[in-house]
Design goal:
CATH class of the largest domain: Alpha Beta
Structural class: alpha/beta
CATH topology of the largest domain: Rossmann fold
Strand content: 15-25%
Distance between the termini: 14 Å
């Protein structure tokens, strides 16, 4: 299997799906219209799908469905918080499946999208042919405490940069401070918080100091603030029910769904223990540790693992392995 991305492709269909609360969800289909249906759940919360995501899976084998979760990316209103909860996202996903006339599909998600994939499979197990989950995020208080507090011991220079860029982001209240600024602050304060948050996130992902951007163009600045508005909205509400280990408590609903977990050994964003916790509680699941790899899905070993294991779940390499 390739350790590089498949060649770039364009969607063969796209549209805007009207859901509730005035939200319209952008979606696109790529690859083989007669192939194995695969839906991709992007990370964040607050991010969106990118053209590079289309290159992770074999376009000859899969009918790939990508969509930007409500309030994200090309969905409208971008940054909209009204009627925007985890339950809404699950309903949107199911509405999209029916809209596209897909009976069942392979669910692929990374980071926040991996947690969302677990929640979707628990809610609608009969429509999931399999789960391929990378860098599992469970949304527990301990997971948030790690990212916004404890991991600073591994990145003291990046933490100092965060404190200098956004002084109110104290060690025991970084999430609350940043969230308040992007949600309630004046435009310049919201942008400063978003830039500081982005740099911290990039530093943890890359496992090195990443400096904040400067001189951001107005449209990009608005998009960045909208992204972190969504993320702040979800995280400060404990992902609307995930805070106390909700996902682990409902794994029994996934019984019989082939599930493969991929987790980088060097993932500092979502600790490897999260994948282990899911694997230990989900009989029959397969956990693949990806050596010398962090949280970024485009690192070569992870690219190879995603492509290979998607085909395994689709049955094109001889079965679930």
């Amino acid at each position: 299997m390739p350790s590089t991305l498949y060649p770039p492709i364009s969607p063969y269909a796209s549209g805007m799906l009207a859901v509730d609360g005035d939200h319209r969800v952008y979606y696109e289909e790529c690859g083989n219209s007669e192939g194995v249906p695969l839906v991709f759940l992007h990370g964040g919360p607050g991010s969106g799908c990118s053209p590079a995501h289309r290159q992770l899976f074999d376009p000859k084998r899969f009918r790939m469905v990508f969509f930007d979760q409500r309030g994200c990316g090309r969905s409208t209103p971008r940054g909209g918080l009204y009627a925007n909860t985890t339950l809404h996202l699950l309903r949107d996903l199911e509405q999209l499946r029916k809209h596209l006339g897909i009976a069942q599909w392979l669910v692929v998600g990374g980071s926040w999208g991996a947690g969302l994939g677990l929640a979707y499979a628990a809610a609608y197990p009969s429509v999931c042919t399999g789960l391929l989950l990378r860098g599992v995020f469970l949304g527990r208080k301990a997971d948030l405490d790690w990212f916004f507090h404890q991991v600073r011991v591994l990145l003291p220079d990046a933490w100092q940069a965060l404190a200098q860029q956004f002084p109110s982001a104290t060690a025991d209240g970084a999430l609350a401070s940043l969230a308040h600024a992007v949600l309630k602050g004046a435009p310049e304060e919201a942008l400063a918080a978003a830039l500081a948050w982005e740099a911290w996130e990039a530093s943890v992902t890359e496992r090195r100091l990443v400096a904040p951007r400067h001189g951001v163009a107005p449209e990009l600045a608005r998009a960045l603030v909208d992204k972190y508005r969504i993320q702040a909205h979800y995280l400060r509400h404990g992902c609307f029910g995930w805070h106390e280990g909700f996902l682990l408590k409902h794994l029994q609903r996934l019984h019989g769904i082939p599930t493969i977990l991929l987790h980088g050994r060097l993932d500092w964003v979502c600790r490897p223990s999260a994948a282990w916790d899911v694997h230990a509680r989900l009989p029959g699941s397969r956990l693949h540790w990806i050596e010398e790899t962090g949280h970024n899905p485009f690192e070569p070993r992870m690219v190879q693992a995603l492509a290979t294991q998607a085909l395994a779940l689709a049955g094109h390499d001889g079965g679930f392995a």
